Amino acid sequence: MNVAAILKLKGRDVITAPPETPLLEIARLLGTHGIGCIVVAEADGKVSGIVSERDIVREIARAGASVLDQPVEACMTKSVVSCRESDTMDQLMGEMTAHRFRHMPVVDRGRLVGLVSIGDVVRMRIAEAEMEAAAMREYIATG
Questions:
Q1: For the chain, is the Cβ count within 10 Å smaller at the N or the C terminus?
Q2: What is the pLDDT of residues 93-127, one digit of tens each?
Q3: Helices 23-33 & 53-63 angle (0-180, nearest 10)
């Protein structure tokens, strides 16, 4: 199973914002869409950063509520680790575990094509395990 299979099931829509978007607007987007991160992208689809709920909370704790007026580029993670559609779920889980993050942009030819979360990976793993268990039960039942 690979990243393309996850995107096929969940879709490719990603909420993005330009780097100059105020952090308060980023927080509103997160709340409105019920999501945990926003990919910061240029108009051409090139990923320039990523910001999560945790990033916003850390910034407020560090410098106070005035940071909400600053552009997202001031606190976003700029060195974004991304994956490709051809990457396996094992590769994806390894990267997410090693870097301790829950969202990974999917990039093709330098442009954003999707976003995968740890929840997506867990759902796929559970579905895979259920299919294997059903196949095993069928095999045992038919002898």
A1: C
A2: 999 999 999 999 999 988 999 999 999 998 888 88
A3: 140
Global model pTM greater than 0.70: yes
* Domain extents in the chain: 3-142
Residue that the structure tokens 């590769």 belong to:
91
DSSP-derived 3-state class of residue 116: strand
Between the alpha carbon of residue 140 and those of residues 128, 132, 133, the distances in Å are: 18, 12, 11
Side by side, the strands of the sheet bearing 16-17 are 16-17, 37-41, 47-52
Q: Please state, as a whole number, how many other Cβ atoms lie within 10 Å of the Cβ of residue 29.
A: 17
Q: What does residue 85 show for φ and ψ, rounded to 5 degrees?
A: -60, -30
Q: Got the DSSP string for 29-79?
A: HHHHHT-SEEEEE-TTS-EEEEEEHHHHHHHHHHH-GGGGGSBGGGTSB-S
